[in-house]
Amino acid sequence: MVNNMKIAVFSDIHGNYQALESIIKDIKGKHIDKTIFLGDAISLGPDSNKCLDLLFKEKVTFILGNHELYSTEGVSIDPDSNIDKKNHNLWVTTTLSKENLKKLKEQKLIYELSINNKKYTFIHFLLDEKSKYPFKHLSIFRDKTYKKDMNKIDSNYVFYGHEHTGRIDFINGKSFYGIGSSGCRKDDTTYYYIIDTKKDKVKKIPLKYNRRKFLQSIDSIEFPNKEHIKEVFFGIEKGDHEWSLLIIYFNSYITCRITATWMNIIEFYVCLTSMFHTFFNTDSTPKKQTSTVTTFSASTFTSNSNITKF
User: Fold this and answer.
1) Straight-line distance from the first to the last Cα atom of the chain, in angstroms, rounded to the nearest whole number
2) What DSSP character marks residue 108?
3) Is there a contact between 118 and 157 (Cβ–Cβ < 8 Å)?
């Protein structure tokens, strides 16, 4: 048993490095004893490897999610896998460094703490001990079996991710916090939670992140079914980014005219180039990728009953 703690917890960054960077920076400015990440640092967003680099650098307690398992164990571990999911995660895995893949294989599926005679459990999602694929299916929320599954967990507080929208359930004196996705964001906000074991409170901490840099990053590379992923998981509808680039271009132009510093001039050039490629549909220079880009079917990324699948 340990003494009272303040614990920061968040989940499902999904390659959104700018959101992760904002969260880590804010946590550093607070008196936090431990930071726990609940899995799915990778996939969907553009910067999976950078996210892993930062999480490991900051020595964040890392719980494995299904997307980490797809890279370490293969997508076939998931009974719902299909050729589109396999192709996507093959691409994701080729973007990860050998060092980060090795570190992922060392991480666990569950982390537990006992504080003041109360048990705190941290998982990516409810575990299925009878299956090779270790997570329950999200359909437990649709068919109402989740209460039975949750009640089997021997813990006072359970924190999990995987289900991107988030939810809170109180079942037979136990508290279950589905903290949602801090990376699959459709605006310039993200968040994390602080658990104060002394006060017995859980508080959500909303933050801003650099949405502009995220948009630039996701548009600087090519990957399977990018436009659909942008819309479904990050709220970027076709045409939205073009207008944001115009605003960025205009602001950079005005700044250059006023200050004329080298950094402003460089930023102006980058924005102008990005805008030109976007509006005139020319081939911009993507980040170097070693894998073959495979087109997805739209059915791979769908939403059903407020549960985001992937």
Assistant:
1) 37
2) B
3) yes
CA distance 177 to 179: 6
Place of tokens 């980490």: 68
Paired tokens of 215 = 């948009």
Rounded Cα gap, residues 166 and 160, in angstroms: 9
Q: Is the pTM of this model over 0.85?
A: no
C-alpha to C-alpha distance for 18 and 215, rounded to whole angstroms: 10
Percent helix, strand, coil in the chain, to 5, is 40, 20, 40
Q: Kindly give the pairing relationship between strand 157-160 and strand 201-208.
A: unpaired
pLDDT in tens, 15-72: 999 999 999 999 999 999 999 999 999 999 999 999 999 999 999 999 999 999 999 9
> Which tokens hold the place of 91?
């691409």
Dist. CA 17–CA 209, nearest whole Å: 10
How do 6-10 and 34-37 pair as beta strands? Answer: parallel
